[in-house]
Amino acid sequence: xxxxxxxxxxxGANHNKPQREEWLKDAGFGMFIHWNVDTQLxxxxxxxxxxxxxxxVERYISELPKTFYPKDWDPEKLVILAKNAGMKYIMFTxxxxxxxxxxxxxxxxxxxxxxxxxKDIVRQYVDACRKWGLAVGxxxxxxxxxxxxxxxxxxxxxxxxxxxxxxxxxxxxxxxEAQCKELMxxxxxxxxxxIDSDVLRExxxxxxxxxxxNCLVTRGVLETPEQYLPGxxxxxxxxxxxxxxxxxxxxxxxxxxxxxxxxxxxxxxxRAKGGSYLxxxxxxxxxDLNEGQQGRLMEIGAWHFINQEAxxxxxxxxxxxxxxxxxxxxxxxxxxxxxxxNMPDWPRGERRTFLLKSVKTTPSTEVSVLGQTGSVVxxxxxxxxxxxxxxxxxxxxxxxVRAQRIYNNHKWPNPIVVxxxxxxxxxxxxxxxxxNAEKTASGNLKLTADLTKxxxxxxxxxxxxxxxxxxSLNEEFNQKWTQTDVYPISKPGAQTLEIVANNxxxxxxxEYRAILYQDGLKIDGNTQKISKLRLE
Length: 536
Description:
Belongs to the glycosyl hydrolase 29 family. By secondary structure, this protein is of the alpha/beta class.
């Protein structure tokens, strides 16, 4: 089910060139780099200044720069890791909320040029991207804690930051516009720009497009969900940014990194829903990556090397998934990719069979597994590794073997991708959306699905799923859904169901979605949320 109007409201002016937004849809994968002067402490980036004592703020601004000396910073290493992982662009934090500038700025002394390092890190980053063919992106926060503090905001705040800055708002505006002009005029073409604040957002966009009209502004214009994926498939360009672990900055202790398989699964789901996945890494205070982050990028790189044609220049299929099988389609031809996820213990050489209900064959259909011919299964000469398929009344039956040897121990936990060439849609899915929930007088939760158009099926059942609201910051990201009972329907309109309060009163915040079974094919609806839900 495709949703053309998302639950995110578009923000202000949009002068992005349409072809630049199409480029983001094609690219589909980028690297986010969070790095700041407080990486030396291993604390949350910038936000430790909010509500901090004047003594803390003074030492942060005056003392931390004196020991910022990233002697192991080698931007080419990061760019090559990104390139090998299949990332087409990088978004680099030129300045986070704390106000520490990673470039040679004339607007403040709080920056890298007034540290022992004394080199323009943004310049080095830009040069490395251009050398290795990756698009250049700048993250920039117009909200600047050090500027605000130096101009009288002794109690740094975010909730009403701009209101508290009223005595110096005009000076603030000139300061931010001057910084943006430097970034837009000192480094040649800048491909993307990420604005991480509502403060002076429209002024920043105007400055960016004034000097670089071809620059694609993501946050500030497009939907950019943070630490989660949207529940629906969107036809407009969007970008989801997530941490590899539980912090944006490098966190030296008590961090939990997602596995390579989890990160690959997020990439697959992003692409199936039509978006771009911006995966964040955090260099250490010395400027390098620790083994945990580097190893995961390399694992993604191995998977991408095998399956790269299924990552880029693809668009959503008529359904985004059939259970653990996710789909995309090449944007210009009738080739569909089926990502076989959640099969970590698939032995090499073993044949498995799958039934696809949303795809049907044509006289010229071809089926293969990306990265392998199937003609050879190493050390198993009698094993037939060829992909097979059969169109049946129940659906397209595919039979494939994991033949390629990726790791020395013959184990490869990551998804296999099946290429389905010259195929067609087997069904026309019903159109429906999840409507806002209501609390009933009895304390139960009333959920509603609005079925606007029946599909090509003969039988339909509707129900709902719910779970705690998910965030990539949590160690248990992507928890399983709890499904309600489903019941048959025969015509469009509102379909409602009540969940008993006792089943969900342990959750402070839940997300929920309507689900529909069309001739047995499960179709997930868009996701809605209810905050601070306590239905005692």
